[in-house]
């Protein structure tokens, strides 16, 4: 079925129904790799009171997408964690570093998102960014494990 079907062009379905709901159809190339339009990244870390990088600088060049963050609470203390998304527009921006070390190329995007112990948070973004990074910290002294994934198309 076409979304648009006329003499000037034809746009085929970009969506597919799955048991989980509607998903975006992504093409793959020979050998099973995903087309270059998709950006994916994963990261994990023990989170402390110091802001820690979950996913370091990723080049999006205008793609929109979603973060998925899971607070595993590896110490079992019930600590929630605060997650922040950063963006940079400077061509060739350096990796994200804590603001105290002079990384002025990066700006925080939106509000701080709190992820409770044992919870998963989906954080979508629709704005256009050149580079993004994701960090987390906790107000408790104990560490709390975390895993994050980025999908942008």
> Which structural class is indicated by helix and strand composition?
mainly beta
Task: Give the ordered list of helices and strands.
Answer: EEEEEEEEEEEE
Shape: flat
Order of strands across the main sheet? 5-12-7-10
What gap, in angstroms, lies between the N and C termini? Answer: 22 Å
Q: Output the CATH class name.
A: Mainly Beta
C-alpha-based Rg, rounded: 18 Å
Overall helicity: under 10%
Number of helices: 0
Question: Could you characterize the architecture of this molecule?
Answer:
The structure is a single chain. The protein has 153 residues and is mainly β. The protein has a single domain, classed as Sandwich (Jelly Rolls). The chain contains no helices and twelve strands. The protein has a four-stranded antiparallel sheet with strand order 5-12-7-10, with no helix packed on it. The protein has a four-stranded antiparallel sheet with strand order 6-11-8-9, with no helix packed on it. A two-stranded antiparallel ribbon has the order 1-2. 20% of the residues are buried. About 4% of the residues have low confidence.
Task: Provide tags for this entry.
single chain, mainly beta, Jelly Rolls, four-stranded antiparallel sheet
Short description:
With 153 residues, this protein is an all-beta fold. The chain contains no helices and twelve strands.
Write the layout of secondary structure elements.
Layout: E1 2-6, E2 9-12, E3 15-18, E4 21-24, E5 39-47, E6 52-59, E7 65-71, E8 81-88, E9 107-115, E10 120-125, E11 131-137, E12 144-152
Antiparallel strand pairs: 1-2, 3-4, 5-12, 6-11, 7-10, 7-12, 8-9, 8-11
